[in-house]
Every structure is written in structure tokens, then in C-alpha cells.
């Protein structure tokens, strides 16, 4: 082993796009060259950076795996002129031409979630992930085999006299991979990651990695993905820990960046430490990132929002403008016979403050036509939710017509509290392409609105009119309607929802915590009977550890209650 010298390391926190192999490779190469110019001789990229995370069933296609293999070789060759550079790239890998052992009824994965070290124009060595997560949004055992099961040992490589061991994301949450790397001679642990964001995760992540660094007695380099991919968002915040678990460097959250650190011969680690923002700012940045990347990566020219004058649509509008700019956002107010004048005024005010295109299309003529067409069928029957839902579906139809005609995608405005209880109309306000606040409870909606206004006050004007925040929420589909006519107070509802849906507490446990049995029964029943609606809802941004998406897989047809 060579004598240790000071080595500069770069964590290339990049925003990869799933399936864009050439574009991702260019992004990796550009980051590597920038880091090299700054003196870095070791550059880390995130987990599966070459293909984006998660590639899901793209991995089942032999052509995709072959394209990844070609791209890795080309990436290595393209950086051959960077003498002394070692680049760690995350990518899917298979040994030779072996894919799955698969039939229409049977499959055994024979591909790996891998990290390769590129140096001198070639692939020097490849490490395969050992621990495969299969919980929350993760589904890696569907696609990958474990490097341990393949009989692969730890991978260690040398740069500047330092011996670096490799681990991939979940590996670092367990003891064995890091211990094996140390036993193989590693002096620094490199961990590449694609770990989806949820609120407060960064603190848990850093604490767990600090335990790992202290357990093996060596510095830990944690390179993390950033950006949005369908329902998940990656928050970046790559970091470096010294051997005592102290944060020596941290990249900013939700931004592409190069995090540069210096490894001194005596083991000291030095770099810049970005601050961790508060919870509201984390949530806002995650939502903005999710909207920006979903719209941008899928090539939509803009978005359309049904603006009601209420808090939910106002919040979605503010997020969309922060993500895309006012020029890519269009709002449509669609007043019904029950829309209050104050809603018109507040919607116009909100749109004017943000400088977006604003149109009004009253739905009264269409609603009257529906009632007239159904008059004979409904004769002698009182108006009920049927007529309310007709209004919501007229609005959904109008928004989708505008979307079809102009190409902009409709952003739905339903929140997590509504999605949980079915306080939403299938093919009505649920009609659209992307559900921005699907994982944001109503109480958090208010917190985020107030937080965004607090940020805007520095520029002398609030983004969301105060009256929108303070008014009692209402769907305005019948006279004098409020949400609390049908639902418990949102503070109560959201706490029950958190306990039952996110923490898997039973009804009995929630009642024992002090909630009224009849309220618990009402809320949990609503959660159960509205699963069929959620299965038909648009994909939406995940910001909690349990969202209504891949995290939530309950049967529609089920007699079990607890």
C-alpha cells in the first residue's frame, strides 16, 4: 500500500432521469470533469445514477441492461484523459449475458444493483449491493439478486494511498457490509445512495450513518441523489462524516451540487457544511422539486389548475409558480350556483398576485342542462351528493378539455385528509395528471401556506391572501356547505389519520389515546371504503414515510376492520 497523502474527494449530487442513459452519462462526466478541475481525484455518484432511480420494470428488458453496459464502457473511455481520476458510478449490472431465469410463471433475478470504479479509461472493479430493501416504496428483490448470494466479497480500491471500501444505500444500514469492507482493508467507507425523501428523514439518516462510522472507526462518504421521479423525491444533502460520526461536510438539500472534501493523511476531514432547513421549508422544497421534475422531465408545456378561491388550490398554485414560473401556469375559476362572491374575489386576487393567466368559466349552464336531462329519472327524489358530484365532474371535464386542446397537464388539488376519507369526487376534482398535495394533510396545508407567506413578506407582499387561509374550508357544492359538515375537525382527523394510516395503530389503540370511539370508527371506516377511489387517483408527491401510493397496498375488497 502506498503512503497516504491528502486526497480531495467530490460527492457529485446529480439529478438523474430514469431511462436517459446518454443524458445521465453526460451529466456524470461533466460533474466528474468539474470536480477533477478542482483537484478531486475520487468522485462519487449516486446509486443507479447511470439509469436513474427507480428504473422499475425497465430492468426486466435485456435491451435496457445491454444499453447500460455499453454506456458504462463508453463513460469510462470518455474520461481516460483525466489522469489519476477514480469515478464511482451506480448502475445496474449483470455478469455476462445472464438476465433473469424467467418463465411466464417463475422468475429468479440474476442482475445486480452495482457500483463500478472507472479509472484509466476502463472499469477497474465492480461492487454489487448486498442488502436489498423491500419495504415502503422499495421493491428491489423484484429486480436484483444480492452480491452476497452471488458469492461476491467486499470491494476495496486505492486512491492517493487511501483504501476506499464501497457500499450501496441499504448496505450501510446493516453491520456486515461495512465490517466486511474494513476486514478487506478499507480505511474510508463510500456509500452511494438513492434514498427517497420524507419529512425529518435527514436527521435519522445522518444519525444512522454516524453509528456506522463509529462502529467501524473510519470516515464515511455519503453521496445522494437529488430530484423528482414520479411520486418520489430525492433530497440530496450528501454528507461526509469523520471517524467519530461528526458531520464534516454537507451539500444543500434539493439542489444539484459538488460537495468537495479534503481527506488529510492523519484522518481529518474538512469541507463546507450546508444548513438543514426547517420542516416546512423541506416540505415546500420537496413539493416544488416534484412538480418541476414531473412536468419538465415528461415534457409538458405547462399546467392547468382549477382555482376555487380555497386554501388547497391556492397552495397548489403557489407551489406550481415557484416550480415552473408564472408563464407556464394557467388557472381556471369555474363558479357554480353556490359559489360565494368572496371566492370569486379571492381567486382573482390570488391569480393577480402571482401573475398567472386566469380565466372564468361558469358551470351553471352545464349544471342546469344535466339537471334537466335527469329530471324525469330523479323525479320525487331530494338533491344530495349526486348533484354535488355532477358539479365536480363538470369542472373536471372542462379542465381535461383544456388540457387535451393545449397540452398542459391538470394539477389536482386534493390533500391527504381528503384522499383518506373520500372527500373528493371520482372523475371530478380527482380528474387530472398529477396530484401535488396528495400526501399533505389539511393541517400541514395551512402550515405551508403560512410559511410561504412568511417568506414572501420580505418582498413586501403575501403570496396567499390571508382571507383564503382564515375562511372555513368548503367545497361550495350546496348552500352554506363546510368541510366540517361531513368530517371531524381537521386537527382531530389528521391525528387519527397519522396514527391509523402512517403508524399502523389499531382503532383500539387510537381510542385508548383519548379519541372518541365514534369518531375513530367514522374515520377508519371512511379510509377503508374509499380505497377504490384512491386506486384511480393520479400519482402524487410523497413527503411522508407512508403515502397513498406504493407505500399503501390495501385490498379494495376486504372484510377486516381493526
SSE layout and pairings?
Blueprint: E1 7-13, H1 21-37, E2 42-44, H2 62-78, E3 86-93, E4 101-103, E5 106-108, E6 112-119, E7 122-128, E8 156-159, E9 162-168, H3 175-183, E10 188-193, H4 201-216, E11 220-224, E12 226-229, E13 232-235, E14 239-241, E15 247-250, E16 257-263, E17 269-271, H5 279-297, E18 303-306, H6 311-324, E19 329-333, H7 341-354, E20 357-360, H8 364-374, H9 385-406, E21 409-412, H10 416-421, E22 434-435, H11 442-456, H12 466-470, H13 490-502, H14 507-512, H15 517-529, H16 531-534
Parallel strand pairs: 1-2, 2-3, 9-10, 10-11, 18-19, 18-21, 19-20, 21-22
Antiparallel strand pairs: 1-16, 3-6, 4-5, 6-7, 8-9, 11-14, 12-13, 14-15, 16-17
Helix pairs in contact: 1-2, 5-6, 5-11, 6-7, 6-11, 8-9
The number of strands is 22
Structural class: alpha/beta
CATH class of the largest domain: Alpha Beta
What does the largest sheet look like? 7 strands, mixed
Overall radius of gyration:
26 Å
Mean pLDDT: 92
Please name the CATH topology of the largest domain.
Nitrilase/N-carbamoyl-D-aminoacid amidohydrolase
CATH architecture of the largest domain: 4-Layer Sandwich
Supply the CATH superfamily name of the largest domain: Carbon-nitrogen hydrolase
How many domains? The number is 3
Strand content: 15-25%
End-to-end separation: 61 Å
Helicity level: 25-40%
**Shape, per Cα inertia axes:** elongated
Task: Give the neighbour order of strands across the main sheet.
Answer: 7-6-3-2-1-16-17
In terms of per-residue confidence, which ranges show pLDDT below 50 for 5 or more consecutive residues?
none
Tell me the number of helical segments per DSSP (H or I, 4 or more residues long). Answer: 16
Amino acid at each position: 500500500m502506498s503512503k497516504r497523502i491528502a486526497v480531495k474527494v467530490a460527492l457529485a449530487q446529480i439529478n438523474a432521469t430514469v431511462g436517459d442513459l446518454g443524458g445521465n452519462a453526460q451529466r456524470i462526466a461533466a460533474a466528474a470533469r468539474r470536480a477533477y478541475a478542482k483537484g478531486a481525484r475520487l468522485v462519487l455518484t449516486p446509486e443507479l445514477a447511470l439509469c436513474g432511480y427507480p428504473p422499475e420494470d425497465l430492468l426486466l428488458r435485456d435491451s435496457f441492461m445491454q444499453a447500460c453496459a455499453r454506456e458504462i464502457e463508453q463513460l469510462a473511455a470518455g474520461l481516460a484523459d483525466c489522469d489519476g481520476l477514480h469515478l464511482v458510478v451506480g448502475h445496474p449490472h449483470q455478469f455476462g449475458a445472464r438476465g433473469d431465469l424467467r418463465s411466464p410463471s417463475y422468475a429468479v433475478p440474476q442482475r445486480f444493483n452495482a457500483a463500478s470504479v472507472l479509472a484509466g479509461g476502463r472499469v477497474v472493479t465492480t461492487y454489487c449491493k448486498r442488502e436489498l430493501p423491500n419495504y415502503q416504496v422499495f421493491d428491489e428483490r423484484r429486480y436484483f439478486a444480492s452480491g452476497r448470494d452471488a458469492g461476491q466479497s467486499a470491494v476495496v480500491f486505492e486512491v492517493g494511498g487511501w483504501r476506499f471500501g464501497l457500499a450501496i444505500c441499504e448496505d450501510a444500514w446493516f453491520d456486515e457490509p461495512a465490517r466486511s469492507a474494513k476486514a478487506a482493508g478499507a480505511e474510508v467507507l463510500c456509500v452511494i445512495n438513492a434514498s427517497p425523501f420524507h419529512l425529518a428523514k435527514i436527521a435519522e439518516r445522518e444519525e444512522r450513518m454516524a453509528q456506522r462510522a463509529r462502529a467501524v472507526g473510519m470516515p464515511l462518504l455519503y453521496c445522494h441523489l437529488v430530484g423528482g421521479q414520479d411520486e418520489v423525491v430525492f433530497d440530496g444533502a450528501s454528507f461526509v462524516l469523520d471517524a467519530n460520526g461528526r458531520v464534516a461536510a454537507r451539500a444543500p438539500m434539493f439542489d444539484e451540487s459538488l460537495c468537495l472534501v479534503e481527506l488529510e493523511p492523519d484522518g481529518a476531514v474538512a469541507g463546507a457544511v450546508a444548513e438543514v432547513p426547517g420542516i416546512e421549508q423541506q416540505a415546500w422544497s420537496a413539493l416544488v422539486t416534484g412538480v418541476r421534475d414531473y412536468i419538465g422531465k415528461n415534457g409538458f408545456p405547462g399546467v392547468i389548475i382549477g382555482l376555487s378561491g380555497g386554501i388547497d388550490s391556492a397552495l397548489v398554485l403557489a407551489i406550481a409558480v415557484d416550480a415552473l414560473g408564472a408563464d407556464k401556469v394557467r388557472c381556471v375559476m369555474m363558479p357554480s350556483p353556490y359559489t360565494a362572491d368572496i371566492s370569486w374575489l379571492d381567486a382573482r386576487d390570488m391569480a393577480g398576485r402571482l401573475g398567472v393567466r386566469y380565466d372564468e368559466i361558469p358551470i351553471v349552464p352545464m349544471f342546469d342542462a344535466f339537471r334537466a336531462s335527469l329530471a324525469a329519472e330523479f323525479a320525487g327524489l331530494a338533491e344530495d351528493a349526486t348533484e354535488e358530484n355532477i358539479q365536480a365532474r363538470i369542472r373536471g371535464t372542462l379542465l381535461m378539455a383544456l388540457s387535451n386542446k393545449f397540452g398542459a397537464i391538470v394539477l389536482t388539488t386534493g390533500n391527504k385528509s381528503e384522499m383518506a376519507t373520500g372527500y373528493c369526487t371520482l372523475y371530478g376534482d380527482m380528474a387530472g395528471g398529477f396530484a401535488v398535495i396528495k400526501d399533505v394533510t389539511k393541517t400541514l396545508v395551512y402550515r405551508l401556506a403560512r410559511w410561504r407567506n412568511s417568506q414572501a413578506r420580505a418582498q413586501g407582499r403575501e403570496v396567499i391572501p390571508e382571507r383564503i387561509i382564515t375562511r372555513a374550508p368548503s367545497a361550495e357544492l350546496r348552500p352554506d356547505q363546510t368541510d366540517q359538515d361531513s368530517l371531524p375537525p381537521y386537527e382531530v382527523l389528521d391525528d387519527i389519520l397519522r396514527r391509523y394510516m402512517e403508524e399502523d395503530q389499531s382503532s383500539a389503540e387510537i381510542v385508548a389515546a383519548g379519541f372518541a370511539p365514534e369518531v375513530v370508527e367514522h374515520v377508519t371506516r371512511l379510509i377503508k371504503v374509499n380505497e377504490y377511489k384512491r386506486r384511480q387517483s393520479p400519482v402524487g408527491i410523497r413527503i411522508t414515510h407512508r403515502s397513498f401510493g406504493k407505500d399503501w397496498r390495501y385490498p379494495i375488497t376486504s372484510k377486516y376492520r381493526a
